[in-house]
Amino acid sequence: MKRATLSKLNAFILTFIVTAFLFSPVLAQEEPLVLSVEKAKELAEKNNRQLAVDDLEIQTKFNALEKAREDAKILQYSYGTTDNMLDMSLAREVKPIEAETAYEAAKLNKGKNLERLKTDVEKAIYEILLLRKQLELENYRYQVLQERYRIMQVKFSQNIVTESDLDNMKFSVDSKNMDIGSLKDSIAAAELKLKNLIGLRLDGAPLELSAEIKYEPYRNISIDELVKIGIRNNVEIYRLGRNVLAREKEMEVIGRFRSLTSGRYDESRYAYEKALADLETAEANLEVNIRNAFNELLTLEDKVNLAVSREELLKKKLEIAKTKLGTGMMSREQYLAEEQVYMESVFGTLKAKYDYTMRQLEFQVLVR
């Protein structure tokens, strides 16, 4: 009876240990979170706190606009001293313009913040994808170095190479292994950056990215039209344009009292001219930035085309090398060198496309 009780107790303890092991939050493996670019953007928009702050700012600016409009109605008729009448006229005709500008700018700013967030998420995903491809290349290089080291060991045993040559090759193998470890750390850091952007727990499930680095160069697009779109959609230029309108209205109102307030009119004229100059400068600077960025994209597209051509050429050379290897006209070591050059060109093409796409995403923020 006592033995049966002990057996039941031991079975219970064993079951408890196994259950605790399987369901322990430390030891249990979480399923990978599958993320597409669009799903990541949706999560980022849902979890981002800045957008909630933007909503509060929009509401605050709307309240200020409503108050400015109510004050304008109350101050419909001006009375009192010249300064009082002028101040009331400004509050009635200028303040609502300024309040409306602040309200509309707040709404535009939220849209820009959301667009920036989505762009940063997409860039973070592409960064991880590139790093993972780079890791594949580094693992391949490591395997090649290991094979070359084995070949060199055979040559060393045959007194074809020196011990120094063998040591140098061993050092190359060890160094490449360290490079791989460093690259894995970079990938982990990039994944944490993405998790932070989309509002996920940093210690949460690993990420499985359902995405590829896209390459969609512009076709039949007018840079002049892009400049117009960029200027029209720029929040700062909107503010400056509305400031010109407000300063013009201010100058007009003060002008009605010009004979009594010549000093204030001169100040308002200066403010208007400065606002106009600020607007023109901002538009010119933005146009320069857009045109320079577009020219940079054209250069990056040329680099992609060059990389693609080089990859195609090296692929043909590798096919010839395979034939030579099969017929004994090329050694295994020579073939590995040819293969490695081709593999590196494949990554080079991907890197060129990545560079173009990352710059293109920034360009889209500039003009949209």
Describe, in plain words, how this protein is organized in 3D.
- By secondary structure, the chain is mainly alpha-helical.
- The chain contains ten helices and two strands.
- It has a two-stranded parallel ribbon.
- Helix 3 crosses helix 4 (82-93).
- The longest helix has 66 residues, at 262-327.
- The N and C termini lie far apart (81 Å).
- The relative contact order is 0.10.
- The model is unreliable at 1-27 (pLDDT under 50).
Tags for this entry?
single chain, mainly alpha, two-stranded parallel ribbon, 10 helices, 83% helix, disordered N terminus
Strand content: under 5%
One letter per element, helices H and strands E, the order comes to: HEHHHHHEHHHH
Radius of gyration: 33 Å
- Assign an overall shape: elongated
Helix/sheet category: mainly alpha
What is the number of strand segments?
2
Q: In whole angstroms, how far apart are the ends?
A: 81 Å
- The largest sheet has its strands arranged as 1-2
Helix content: over 70%
User: What is the number of helices?
Assistant: 10
Largest sheet: 2 strands, parallel
Low-confidence stretches: 1-27
Round the mean pLDDT to the nearest integer and report it. Answer: 90
What oligomeric state do the depicted chains represent? single chain
